[in-house]
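Worked example 2:
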Amino acid sequence: MIGLLVALTSAAVYTVGLSVEQRALHGSESISVHRPLHLARVLLGNPRWVLGCAFAALGSVGLIVSLGLAPVSVAQPAFAAGVAATLLVATLLTGERVTRGEYVALGVMPVALGLLSLSTHDGGETGTSANTPALVAVSLVTVVACVAVMGAVGRGGRYVSAAAMGAAAGLAQGSAGLQGKGLGGLLAEHGVAAAVTPALASPFPYLYALGWAVGIVLFQTSLQRSRASITAPVSNVVGNVFMVVAGTILFGESLPEDPVTLALRIGGFALTLVVVVLVRGNVASAEADTSRRRAADPVTATAVSDSGERSAARPNAVGRD
């Protein structure tokens, strides 16, 4: 139960950071995954985005702690559900248009969390150590595949939607989450101080940094194209599925033996996935709304125009970045 509460608290902190990042991105010039140096300059040169990133990072640290306290099939879905529900509440408070499906998603989330909470009683073993070679292989293949597919599609001249980019970001961040599970296990086994040396000697922090870096580039690009209540649930749920399935196997976690408790766990997990179906129909309109707002903003429009003029004057800029 404690792990579930830590995951929900971490989700709230993460969402605050995500909302700040979104507002910063919607007021900045356009970014692209094919211009990484320009992307880094735009993001790191925006103090508001850096502040949001710090909050999001703090929320991610909380998720790592929760993964050492509860099975991945409980902590990760709770975190994803908390982020999605909080974002939809924030959307309502800011007066943005919300679809009927998103209202339903907002109602589904508490039910999912309730089922996950009930399933923690005699809810199976919390794994703290993994099959390290298999974990490294799965993580590297996932991250490389995300980069290769997004790069191939984008350079082929086809437009990559915010939802598709968010899904790829979810896979990369799910890969980082597996390393977070490993670090959480070390914290649970050794305590904070004693876990430093074995953590640095393990591949977890380095693979975490790789997955996080790729995930954040893809996610921030998708976030600028749409609103967070669209891209974040897609990213979180895709990463959620990947991490729960892979993490349960790689860390040797057992599911609840009691049929009723197992049904509650599976039901809660399944309901967190429903959000993808509920929000995907509004992705195109959300992207269009965001584009219109950015075009109507004098500051953003000027930044985007200047960026486009610089790109036209320097046709090889993408290649140099």
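The CA atoms of residues 34 and 289 lie 24 Å apart. The chain has a mean pLDDT of 75.
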